[in-house]
Write a structure and sequence with these properties.
- An eight-stranded parallel beta barrel has the order 1-2-3-4-5-6-7-8, surrounded by six helices.
- It is globular.
- The protein has about 250 residues and is α/β, with parallel strands linked by helices.
- It has a single domain (about 5-245), classed as TIM Barrel.
- The protein is built from eleven helices and eight strands.
- It is about 45% helix and about 15% strand.
- Helix 1 (about 15-30) runs parallel beside helix 11 (about 240-245), helix 7 (about 140-150) packs parallel to helix 8 and helix 10 (about 215-225) packs parallel to helix 11 (about 240-245).
- The protein binds 1,3-dihydroxyacetonephosphate.
- 1,3-dihydroxyacetonephosphate binds near residues 95, 167, 173 and 211.
Length: about 250
């Protein structure tokens, strides 16, 4: 039984006071939900305020990125231990915006995943193809490369502590969504890849979220697919009402 996980990726939005307000509204609306794991991923600067606000609720905290070392001369970076110190249980690794704008490649992401897991964080490992790749029918090739190059040396000893997010790049922030069939097909493919690496039982335990223009009106259909175990939500997570509707989509 996979417990669905719905995470709000606030990206570079919400200063501290706004973050406190949004987190507190979300706690009011879904702070006692247990059948879905709800995770908020505010910017680093608001993590502490959000950690304080969600205390005592079922909502969990995640970072949007982290470094692969514990400390050192890495100006501007954040160690994964700093995230656990803030109360984070999760960290997004390899979001397409990190891959695209900050040139994070599979090898770097592999180091980040290993380190994050070593300190007890649950990674939300993002993969997905661009529009051009989909048009050229390279979707499966891209997903296979991202998975096989991202995961060497990673053993999911407890596969419930590893999350994959399939986010087709062309669906992020565009209002375009993969159809439920397209998403299901990609999710099944990714689960089969994981089965090849970790075995069937582990692959059937890993949660695979869909991300890319998830909204209250498409959440139920997407998450109704057999291999879609939740959502990674951008724009619609910046407003408590729409995020709560996605969480309570059933
Ligand atoms: P949108 O929901 O705004 O398309 O963003 C998706 C995303 O990138 C979540 O990580």
């Amino acid at each position: 039984m996979r417990i669905p996980i719905i995470a709000g990726n606030w990206k570079m939005h919400k200063a501290i006071s706004e973050a406190r307000t949004l987190a507190s509204e979300i706690v009011q609306k879904v702070g006692d939900v247990r059948e879905v794991q709800v995770v908020l991923c505010p910017p680093f600067t608001a993590l502490y305020a959000v950690a304080e606000t969600i205390k005592g609720s079922s909502v969990e905290l995640g970072g949007q990125n982290c470094h692969y070392e514990s400390k050192g001369a890495y100006t501007g970076e954040v160690a994964p231990e700093f995230l656990t110190d803030m109360g984070c249980r999760y960290v997004i690794i390899g979001h397409s915006e990190r891959r695209q704008y900050f040139k994070e490649d599979d090898q770097l992401l592999n180091r980040k995943l290993k380190k994050a897991m070593a300190v007890g964080l649950i990674p939300i490992f993002c993969i997905g193809e661009t529009l051009e790749e989909r048009k050229k029918e390279q979707t499966f090739d891209v997903l296979r490369k991202q998975v096989t190059n991202g995961l060497p040396g990673i053993q999911a000893d407890d596969p419930s502590l590893f999350v994959v997010a399939y986010e087709p790049v062309w669906a992020i922030g565009t209002g375009l969504t993969a159809t439920p069939d397209q998403a299901q097909e990609a999710h099944r493919y990714v689960r089969d890849l994981l089965a090849g690496l970790w075995g069937t039982d582990a692959a059937e335990t890993v949660r695979i979220q869909y991300g890319g223009s998830v909204k209250p009106d498409n959440a139920a259909e997407l998450m109704g697919q057999p291999d879609i175990d939740g959502a990674l939500v951008g724009g619609a997570s910046l407003e408590a009402d729409s995020f709560a509707k996605i969480v309570k989509h059933k």
